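hey can u check if this looks right to u? its 566 residues, i copy pasted from the old doc so theres a chance i mangled smth
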Amino acid sequence: MSCRHCCRAFFMSTLNRSTSQRLQRLPKLPSVWEGDRCSMTGSLAAQFDASDDHDPAPTDCILWVDGTQGTVRSLAIVPTDAGPEAMVRTLLQAIEHPQGAADPCRPQKIVVRDRELQFYLRGVLQDLDITVDYGPALPLIDELFQQLQQQVLPERPNLPEPYAQDLMATAMAMWDIAPWQVLNEQQILAVEINAWEVDTLYVSTLGMAGVEYGLLLYRSVTSLRQFRQRVLSGSQSTKQMQEAFLEQDCLFLNFELLDADDGWFSLPQTVTTPGPDAVQPEFGSLHPLEGLRNHLEVEEAFTMMVALEALRRFFKRFYHSLEAVPFPTLDGRYRIENPDPNLSQKTLSVLVKTLPALAQELIQETEVALGGAGDQGQQDFSRTLPVLRDDYIPQGSLVMLTKLPGDWLQQLRQSPQRYLQSMAFRAAAGERSSPQELPVVLIQTSRPKAKTLIENLRHAQGIQAVCFTPGHDFYSGAAYELGLLQTGDDEFHLFAEYLRDDPVDRRSLSRWWQWHQDYQGHCGVVIAAGVTGSASGNPQLKDLCALFETRSCTAEELNIPPLEMQ
């Protein structure tokens, strides 16, 4: 931040009469105010810039302070090319609407350090009986600007610069391996490193449920057990879950799924199994005394690099063996290049092994918590775990729980191109006549994405059911009701997340369950276009691309346990 003087000719403006009269009615106090304008540069400008512009226009900071009280009366951020009128506007704000607890008033005197600005303000303020003086130094202003500059720390990179590229490459190699296709979060791997004050990391793989993907590398098996026990207890409030989340002791690698416009690592897509356009790896740490940290220290970066490389080699060797039931006993020792120049050895011997006994304990704990028999073994548990995916509903879609009017319903039923699934079990469900309206999950997206979604649902043998089931977000601890579509291939597809603590979401779900009773479970799923046009949020009949009539079920009817949103 650097202070500058105005070096241009000012066009003189004056306050209109009503404004002058209004300001004259304010009390005049024997105080001296300082005012100045300084250019904002670097990280300080970025902190005050709320826009998404990667190349923002240069800005200035205007301050008016009460030198008698030592308080800031007003502060404004303006474009650098803004005229002296901006100084006047900020001064009037300091007079009539000061920041903090200060009262509106006029100062006896104001001091500026720009001669041209002094003459300009004298002309503008001549009716307010305020003395305008020149001062070559404004110590209070200088001190405040210096404090602002010192408080803005340079932006810290998420990964240590010398190792960021290698870490990202290793992360993307892990994404390509996709260990979540063969491991669930209970099938723990141990990675023995014995360096950087880390003995063994206990790795839990997130992603088999298809919601989020990543690895949790616990620094102790105790932390892993404690968090799982709190999640499975079922008696935790949202705040308690958030606290439990922050009390974990682990490093993590998470993969955020993005649209292609967001950049990062682009991914290919297929018509029948749409996926994310791009992936952004995210590293970080959780610690009971520190909470969540979205960057790695240097030694943590070394630990992650070595652990991920050892895991990559382990998966390359044993990937298909890990699918065996029960969870097999496997281990591999690998020589990994040492990335730390301060350690004498050039390579590190790292052991990776499965922990079948621990996995069995965790599975049994889960079965007991979910009301299962507890003695059916890993094979039964794996067989009952639902396949949950979130790659069908296009990103940016609008999802509404609403009713389809009776005349629209009849027109759609008469259109073979749009009426893709009838309610063949209406009579079996005990429905005496076709409803005049139909509760529906309406998914509005763009027309091309709507066509792709419809085709994917047809390939999945249609929609068997709509249901809602409890879920917890692993990363935030928030409690949700997850809206799911069950397709004919017995997979479940996430279409929306409803916060239990949100009153709007609660009303939507309450209304849905009332409809569930009123219509004996008869409902539908409507795919609509027009999300970016005038019909966004309010699609008309012409925007409706497909209707799948189906049934509304409870999670218990479909045998879905409470889910952890990984």
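The longest helix spans residues 298-318.
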